[in-house]
Amino acid sequence: MDREWKWMTESPDMLAQRWIFAAGLSTVTRLSKFLRDRVTFKNAAVRRRTPTLEDTTISFSSLRLSDEATYICEYTTFPAGNRENTVNLTVYVRPTTQMSLSTPTLVARSSNLKTPVATCISANGKPPGTIRWETRVPGEVTTREYINSDGTFTVQSDYILVPTRETHRETLTCVTTYNEEVYTDSVTLDIQYEPNVMIEGFDGNWYLNRENVQLSCQADANPAVSLYQWRLINSSIPSNIEIRDNVLLFKGPVTYEVQGTYVCDATNSIGTSSAFVEVSVLEKPLPQIATGDVISVIALLLSAGVLMGITITVLVLKIRTRKDSSSGDSPSTKVSQPIRKRPDDIQHAGRFYEELPNTADYVSYRLACNKEDYPEPYSPPINPPLSFLPQQPYHPSQTMPALGTSSASTPSKNTFAPSTHTTAVFKYPSVPGLSSPPPGVGPYTFPKEQYV
Predict the structure, then answer these.
(1) What whole-number distance in Å separates Cα of residue 64 and Cα of residue 41?
(2) How confident is the model at residue 397, as a pLDDT?
(3) Cα(121)–Cα(376) distance, rounded to whole angstroms?
(4) Which residues of the chain fall short of a pLDDT of 70?
């Protein structure tokens, strides 16, 4: 059975020659001119032009963007017919990253205009890379993306801010990410600005006949100061003062002649700035405080502050503890105790009553809880008070039976017998204007046990 295989591509760049390889049992033919120098066979037998047709894998030695296409492998047998499969080849291109200052010279101006200070570029990548910035300097970011003619992408990001003296020598870092690969590049801002001037040396204690005093003009500038100039307002500098660049040396003892307002002008290529100091001369020196005394005072103040803080903390904790304890003892936070029920203290089935310490309250409570049995017009009045003892509890005429076999009984003077009634009967007190209980209402019966 004859067999043949061939590779084809559907890339638009290869429409004129869609065949890559075509091979029979013993030969390889029709090698595409686009891939002739860059494609080889993985199988050694195919490379020896004796293909077994079991593995027809091809390898690219130098991949190009133009190689991105859909590849078709077709296998033909006679007379069985054709078999084919396809594979999509996607070509990635790693971008190149570069970072630079937007302009060679950045100048801080008083207009406070925002200016692009740095540019980061991720060029000729596929797919495009992403750019972000890392810096302490606040600013804005603008990013643009371009498509190149070969299908790659270029991404440009600019960092925009207001150039100032404070942003000089700050670092900007560009972070580019491509397919989980991270690249970083940094630049240091070089901001040029006019001098920032201050005068040092006058301590407010220049007195008559003091010696070895001077004024120094200090300037922060980029680029450096090229010229210092001293002048005395409304007067000329005294002859006993020597000018040495940015320093004024006062020769000899101090006199009233050196009083006045001294001005220092500092100039660089960006501009000129000035500073002044008012020099006054005292008749006598000011009292000086020793360094040790200052340290002692500072230490004492610190100690007092620490002690005060500890005291306040302790007081706050005590107040909180008292509040917590008082809130814990308040009636609203107390747990209610369950009411004890007496199983034999039952007047009607299913009705329980609280145990009251006062018997009068107990009876009144019982009467109040049985209003259906004793309507309001027939409820016993609270006054006069009721008697809780049984009516005539003991009868002296009764005698106790004698112990023994004798059936006769003799009364005893020192003994008494309790009443034979097992329960005491409550009788309504006779009150003028109060009628007797209605028909059908029995007398009130005390419980079995009474507490009096």
Answers:
(1) 18
(2) 47
(3) 102
(4) 1-6, 9-36, 43-54, 289-292, 327-452
Which CA distances in Å does 319 have to 311, 314, 316, 326, 331? 12, 9, 5, 11, 20
Q: What is the DSSP string of 72-105?
A: EEEEEETTTEEEEEEEEE---BPPEEEEEESSS-
Q: Give pLDDT tens digits for 99-131.
A: 999 888 899 988 889 999 999 999 999 999 999
Give CA angle at 391 (362, 448), nearest 5°.
45
The CA angle 23-89-82, to the nearest 5 degrees, is 35
Which one, of 228, 240, 166, 223, lies nearest residue 198 by Cα?
Answer: 228
Q: Give the C-alpha separation, 439 to 310, whole Å.
A: 82
Distance CA 190, CA 118 (A): 11
Q: Is the peptide bond before 79 cis (omega within 30 degrees of 0)?
A: yes
Distance CA 99, CA 122 (A): 9
Angle at 422 between CA 375 and CA 416, to 5 degrees: 130
**How confident is the model at residue 211, as a pLDDT?**
93
Tokens standing for residue 398: 């009764």
Tell me the per-residue pLDDT of 363-386, one tens digit each, with 9 for 90 and over: 555 555 555 554 555 455 555 555
